[in-house]
Specification:
By secondary structure, the chain is α/β, with parallel strands linked by helices. Helices cover 30% and strands 23% of the residues. It has helices spanning 3-7, 9-21, 69-73, 86-94, 105-114, 129-136, 148-158, 192-199, 219-224, 236-245; strands spanning 35-41, 45-50, 56-59, 119-123, 140-144, 161-163, 174-180, 200-211, 232-233, 249-254, 272-278. It has a seven-stranded mixed sheet, with helices on both faces.
Length: 282
């Protein structure tokens, strides 16, 4: 049993208990009630798709009653949630995170191509490893992170700006918004795309990376990646439908960072989905 699996056992058990007594009243993005059941997990949990917006989600969506999930109960693989000690951190910083599981050189290089200016917002910053690398590349980065322990570590040890929520950014505008393997953790996705649009300056770029939920072509893989700590599943159809509804123009889907922005796919494929969009300048 891996350390991450052991740490996540409590959320999984609580999730199954909730599945015995609770159901979602509607889609966590648009509130739609026209829901299709795609499959079941663990016999109790329904995996549902909204007919109005195409979001896939677990029913129920797990909401911990045992304290902050991302501070106390959840453990990601690698160093996402594990805070490095002083020697390990010093080695990572000295190497610019090169060769580590948190080397973001490729996404940052692509962000430099699509961002019209240095102001960069990351949604879901953990302990600031991406923000540190983005700052070294010339960006003026800010992060949002709900896990208080990791956010404080990033502020104290890396000197990066991390705020606890959208409200702290009122009135600010960014040249690019970036988020990688974070949106699938949201329990309430209503208003998220609208907030992103408001935070983007006209002409600003949005770059999203999420696990690719494709049904039925990749049904088995997709089902394995949705559950207690990943309650949402995103397809290309979801972004194609909903970005324009929130004033954002879809620029393309990509499987590899090196293909962005000039070589979009005809349709999303692969395990991960990279989506590029922009807030029109006019």
């Amino acid at each position: 049993m891996s350390p991450a699996f052991a740490a996540n056992l409590v959320p999984r058990l609580e999730f199954l208990a909730q599945a015995l007594v609770r159901r979602e009243p509607g889609c966590p993005h648009c509130g739609g009630r026209g829901l299709e059941t795609l499959a079941r997990k663990y016999a109790l949990v329904r995996v549902r798709r909204c007919g109005a917006c195409a979001l896939v989600f677990t029913d129920p969506i797990y909401r911990s009653r045992l304290g902050s999930l991302y501070d106390r109960l959840y453990a990601g693989e690698g160093s996402t949630t594990e805070l490095p000690g002083p020697e390990r951190l010093a080695a990572l910083v000295a190497a610019g995170f090169a060769g580590s599981d948190k080397d973001f050189a490729a996404p940052i290089a692509r962000l430099r191509e699509v961002a019209r200016g240095p102001r960069l917002l990351e949604i879901g910053s953990s302990w600031g490893y991406f923000l540190h690398q983005a700052r070294a590349a010339g960006f003026e980065p800010t992060g949002i992170e709900i896990g208080a322990r990791r956010a404080e570590y990033g502020r104290a040890q890396l000197g990066v700006r991390i705020v606890p929520g959208w409200e702290a950014l009122a009135g600010e505008r960014f040249d690019a918004v970036f988020t990688s393997h974070v949106l699938e953790h949201f329990t309430d996705f209503s208003g998220v795309l609208a907030r992103i649009r408001e935070l983007l300056a006209p002409g600003g770029a949005l770059v999203v990376e999420v696990p690719h939920f494709e049904w039925p072509a990749q049904a088995r893989l997709s089902l394995s990646r949705i559950g207690a700590v990943h309650p949402l599943g995103f397809s290309g159809e979801f972004f194609a439908r909903n970005l324009p509804r929130h004033g954002l123009r879809l620029a393309g889907f990509f499987e590899r960072w090196e293909d962005l922005p000039g070589r979009p796919l005809p349709a999303p494929c692969g395990e991960n989905l990279i989506c590029l969009a922009e807030r029109p300048a006019a």
